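Troubleshooting: if your tokenizer reports a length mismatch, compare against these two reference records.
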Amino acid sequence: MEASLLRQCPLLLPQNRAKTVYEGFISVQGRDFHLRIELPEDLQMKNARLLCSWQLKTILNGYHQIVQQRMQHSPDLMSFLMELKMVLFIRARMSWGRRRQRERQERENSEQALRCQPGALCGARTQEPRDHDLSRNQELDA
């Protein structure tokens, strides 16, 4: 298990000889998140304690019960870390996808604003000119 743990989470290292405390980083989609896992003497995940950075806590906001459930049902640390990475991957894609979509929309809006000239017929910055009733104007002029 030690070798596979090191392969999956190379930045998460044991902090004591009994290997009941691990601290370091978990990587998801190119981002590293700090965490600390404190295992009981029997190494059972259901009694473990997970401490994490505010960034990781923010991403997992609303997923506390899912993380707790995965801790309760994982037979060992390696299994839990794989489950946690899966939750983080899904959550990160959702939140980062919304941010990318918002950034793309802002970029498109600013590009369109650059193409618009003051007074020009552009629906993004000015109102479209209203249709005038030419027959009425002709009557007034007559």
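Reference record two:
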Amino acid sequence: MFTTFAFVPQVIKIVKTKNTEAISLQTCLLQVIGVFLWTIHGIIQSDMAILGTNAITLCLTTTILVCKIGSIKREDAEQQVSNCLEEE
């Protein structure tokens, strides 16, 4: 159960600060994929313990991943604006 809620402090910090600089996109993506597969396994096995804990973890890790991708897109947009202003 502790591993399920281990991502809560990270999600809270990211949502509050909007800062995902220290988060590795690759690690986060692999975590989401792994937890998604465990969730599917829980469904196939009809194991509510596996399904429930991994579904919660999937929501938390997906939130982190979405924030990370959004941060990357914002950084790219800011860089493009900066490049345009430098050209003028």
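Descriptive notes for reference record two:
- The chain has one domain: 23-87.
- The two ends are 55 Å apart (CA to CA).
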